[in-house]
Amino acid sequence: MPTQRYKLTLSYRGTAYHGWQTQSMVPTYKGPTPPPGHGIPTIQEILSRALCRIVRHPVKLVGSSRTDAGVHAKGQLAHFDTDQTQIPPENLRRALNHALPPDVLVRSIEPVDDSFNAVTSTLDKRYQYALWNAPNRHPFAADLVWHRWQTLDLPAMRAAAAHLVGTHDFASFARPGHGRESTTRTLLQCAVSQRGPLIIIAVHGTGFLWNMVRIIVGTLVEVGQRRIAPDDIPSILAARARTAAGPTAPPHGLYLHWIRTRPPGPLPADQPSIDFS
User: Could you tell me if 172 and 216 are in contact, meaning their C-beta atoms sit under 8 angstroms apart?
Assistant: First the structure.
């Protein structure tokens, strides 16, 4: 039977999962022991197993972004190959959603050319970070927003965010042990918006380092609390040291908003190389 590649767009609430990547038992996992042959609960693990039950053969599921434990996604991308091409994509999507827990949703499944790859076809990504800036925490969204009760200086945060846009060495905004040879990345947008007590920090770029968005958020919150001046950002970048930037914001306020991919086919000869992470 001919094999077809499918592109998946999915959303998930990451609270109950140890990130995207399939993993065996790790010391930080405190949940129940998985059944024999199973890894700890991750999005890739449960999605792969659901797919295997539907298409009735082993599936290699490739995701665009390895979101960390507790991080959510509105538009994660993945791909897989199957020879079960007689199943209409919409029927496959419905069957998959029926097999998945309620905190994971496959939004679309579409056939794509074999040249599509969820990792190497990615051009840029947008993350959002949700802050709940009010005296009282949000009782119904404690795992979806980071509660900051202190008054935040939004104009200062916006001024600081503007310094991060462009191509810079983001070593100060990367968790040690990231394993990347180059820490230079390009941010196309870093914006701070507010609607009532909800503050959204949007970060759009062509590639990210380990914990980079969460460290950016932690630093901007320090700016909002007037512990760091907006004009200190260039010197923080120049320091190329993790200790120069602010703390790492917790994972539960972070959302992978969307991922943009290039059209099918080979890369143009002048296409710049991007380090995806």
Answer: no
pTM value?
0.90
Do 4-112 and 122-260 fold alike per CATH? yes
Q: Which CATH number fits domain 122-260: 3.40.1190.20, 3.40.50.150, 3.30.470.20, 3.30.70.660?
A: 3.30.70.660
Neighbours of 194 (CB within 10 A): 13
Look up 68 and say whether it is catalytic: yes
Identify whether the C-beta of residue 80 lies closer than 8 Å to the C-beta of residue 232: no
Q: Summarize the confidence of residues 112-124 as an average pLDDT.
A: 94
Is 159 a residue whose pLDDT tops 90?
Answer: yes
State mean pLDDT over 100-124. 95
CB neighbour class for 146 (10 Å; exposed up to 12, middle 13-18, buried from 19): buried
Choosing from 68, 113, 232, 275, the catalytic residue is 68
Structurally, what CATH architecture does the domain formed by 4-112 represent? 2-Layer Sandwich (3.30)
More confident residue, 238 or 277: 238
